[in-house]
Amino acid sequence: MSNWPHCGHREVPAPDSVGCQGIQVPGQTVCFAHLNDPDRLSYLAALSPGSDIDHRGTPFTDELVSQLLASLTDPATGRPRLGQALFERAKFSGDAVFDGVRFDADVSFDGAEIDGNALFDEVEFGGKAQFEGTRIGGQASFEQAIFDGGAWFVQAEIGAIAVFGGVKFNAEASFLGGRFRSGAWFGGTEFRGDTWFHGAQFYGDASFLKASFGGLSALGPLACTGTLDISEAQFGSAVTIEAAANAVNCRRTRWISTAALRLRHATVDLSDAVLEYPVSVTSRARPFLTDGEELAELGLSNLCVRVVSLKGVDAAHLVLADIDLTDCRFAGTIHLDQLRLEGLYTLAAAPHGLRRRGMRPVRWTPRRTLAEEHHWRAVHSADPTGWTPPLEGEEVLEPAALAPVYRQLRKSFEDSKHEPGAADFYYGEMEMRRHADDIPWAERSLLSAYWALSGYGLRAARPHLAAGIHDDHRAGDDALGAAATRSEADQLGYLHWPRQDRSSHDHIRSGQPQWALSRAIVSREVREVPAVGDQFRGLSLLRSEPHHRRHLQRDSLPPYRTHLPWLGRPSHPQPRQTLRVTTSQWAFL
Predict the structure, then answer these.
(1) Is 133 left (phi over 0), alpha (psi -120 to 50) or beta?
(2) Are 211 and 145 found together in one domain?
(3) Residue 445: inside a domain, yes or no?
């Protein structure tokens, strides 16, 4: 029931009907819509640009809106100009076209119902603009509009897309509990005052492309069935973004202050984002609360938050917590070694279990990998089963480009004392170096031997198994060949030295040399490995700089034999020596 003197006009008389709810025109007993033609013309003639109007509850047609605005048009500008304008609970049977209007004072469309489109392009709101509870059946367009006195779209519902492109909100703007049935476009919008989207729901995409947030302290919690796009947006103050969305795009987004992104269900793209202060991305386990009730999540079903790209991001200020990184592209990230991973996070895993290589069964050991390695192996492997292929049109990086990425992630995990994770990334780094085209053939041969013998020092069963099965020179060669692939066996150099008898240093027993394959040459602890002057220098040419040589210590040991196919086979025992080697200086082994 209206609280103003209403028209009461009835199209069909009924005893229980209150009739038209439109406010009576001054000096009349009916509303503007039900004036007869002479009275309507008299009323319109009395209006002038800047006049206050009150048409609360009045039903409007397209023609009535046009007549009203024509009488308020300023001849100097050719634009309608209104003072205070009240359209509360008004009903527009067609479109509400107010393009180019200037409202000098407050305007209210609270509770209004617009069956068609609401068109307010390039409108200037000099006072407060209130659209609380407004129902718009079609599109709502406010392109290039200016709100100087605050904008209130609390509980507003828009049936088609809402367009706020290029709008300037010079004071506060509130979209609390708004319902955008076909998404919303805020591209290039400037939010200069406090802004609220608490409880807003977007049934489609919500784009804030190139938007500017000056005084925003919190964006959300909100729900979006499509993509929440804040790409190229700029946040000038500390902000908390809370959203349940299908995807969140932050490409080239700029955070000038601290930011916390608390998300649900979303797939996040942070490519080329600019982080001047710490920014955290966290997966929230429980639904957001609005007014004590859980925010409806509109059918979103992704179980966790996924980050798919950190390319171009300076990770020195980035914290990821409880994030799925299975499909994340790390290549191109700046200061990747300073990335902080917290909580429960997931990285891509290599295929594991028993598989066949030709007729031979091969056991693959699980390890953490990069999505980029999956893409490369899916494209170049003879058997890509288990490796994730790249998306159509996505660049596939070569191993030479991926080795530094593994190295930086390894350092990040080492700095956080996560040794198992660091070991996986060390393995990945060595794998990429072994397959890289820019690594010399000799070094790749050594890497292949290191991989076949001990899994880069991380697969302890390999050397022990080889030593336990084969106890002579020929058997040792056969074991090494079984450990490597056929293509790699042609490149391998085999290292052999005698197994020492506990009772004597004599390595000849019954006229037959006793040979055994090496245990892991390099580990995280300092180990002693046999070497001999000229023969070992053939190996150390790869890392022969003076600052590496300083770490070598030589001790006399009994003689031993070497078998290095690419260096030649010595015919006589030579003085045996020991080299103390650490992982950091001799990782090429």
Answers:
(1) left
(2) no
(3) no
